[in-house]
Amino acid sequence: MAELTKNTLAPGPKPSRARLAVRNVPVVTVPATARAGTVAFQALGKTYVSSTGTVTALEAIDVEIPAGNIFGIIGRSGAGKSSLLRTINRLEDPTEGRVLVDGQDIGRLGEDGLVALRRRIGMIFQHFNLLSAKTVRQNVALPLLVAGVEKRHIDERVDEVLALVGLEGKHDVYPSRLSGGQKQRVGIARALVHRPEILLCDEATSALDPETTLSILQLLKAINGTMGPTIILITHEMSVIREICENVLVLEQGRIVEKGPVWQVFGTPKHAATRALLKPLSRDVPDDIAARLVLSPVNGGEAVVEVRYTGVEGAGPDLSRLTSAFAGQVRLLHGSVDRIQGHAHGTLLLAARDVSQKHLDALKGHVASTRILGYVRRDV
After folding, report:
1. Residues in contact with 322: Cβ distance below 8 Å, sequence separation at least 6, in sequence order
2. What's the rounded Cα separation, in Å, for the pair 176 and 178?
3. pLDDT of the residue at 380
């Protein structure tokens, strides 16, 4: 890891792991065999004490985030997401336990070591945190200016990151003239200007409309692919996790209630909190079908069969197998199947005549579960 003297910028091409530091500030070194950007929480706890009492925000948090991972932390309001995220750059100090960055206990860092750590970590905020009296260029340049980097090197790096986030030509524009999505791109550029190893996203898309949210998530994913930082984001929106993350941790009342690959957690949520967070993404039986469902078979009617996929059944829905299992007498009434990390999960509603347990058994091993929801007339 190169160390930079004051008023110089890292030489050479734009390496994914170039770092910015200042002379006489100790830099945490990483063994050549390790990839920079790992984060680990060990028995982490956080308690807030006020005049009204004691609140436990985090308790017994144990998890390791691999370098280069896009890692999501999700939970309802008050679950402890922000407290956990802010321990990574020591904006919050844990009451107990440790936070390790590349194997080093950051709680032991002195003032100079903490400055060096924070130069390796970028942060993107929900409400952008831009200085209204400064232009786009000035906002993005601020971290380098504080570090004492020479102006010509600052200008070069600012041009580079503004191009990266798609804001060419916006250098001299003030934040008040930008859309929400553009403001967040400025925030991303500012977080990237010193080429961080770790990028923290604090509800980075919750203030944006759905279309802009998608574009920002795609940008973050592209940044992870080209520059390689570990991206750790907190959100209360499962759709954000589904779109970008590789792994997810679910917090409830300050404790981990579920964690794992996104496709696995989405496919088979084990905790009530996870299922509640996933509820907005689920598709219930359409109202027009639900209104016609009856519990007993209808003369000349069909059974409505729910077929579920959780991501462990291989390639996903096999239409020929479904048709064969029901002897060709099957119709698709409704379906919602997503693919996450190469795994298909979701639900199909099928209508079929003369359904027996034999037909359902024919699908065992190829679907997660089947059940008859009720019966409808053929005209549904």
Report:
1. 307, 330, 348, 350, 363
2. 6
3. 58
Q: Provide the 10 A C-beta neighbour count for residue 308.
A: 17
User: Where does the pLDDT of residue 121 fall: very low under 50, low under 70, confident under 90, or very high at 90 and above?
Assistant: very high
* Gap between the Cα atoms of 53 and 83, Å rounded: 18
In whole angstroms, what is the distance from residue 44 CA to residue 58 CA?
A: 7
**What is the residue whose two structure tokens read 């007339």?**
377
The structure tokens 């691999």 sit at: 66
**Cα 16-21-25 angle, rounded to 5 deg:** 145
Give the per-residue pLDDT at 165: 94
323: three-class secondary structure by DSSP: helix
Cα angle 351-352-356, degrees, rounded to a multiple of 5: 125
Q: Report the C-alpha dihedral over residues 131, 134, 135, 139, rounded to 10 degrees.
A: -50
8 vs 360, higher pLDDT? 360
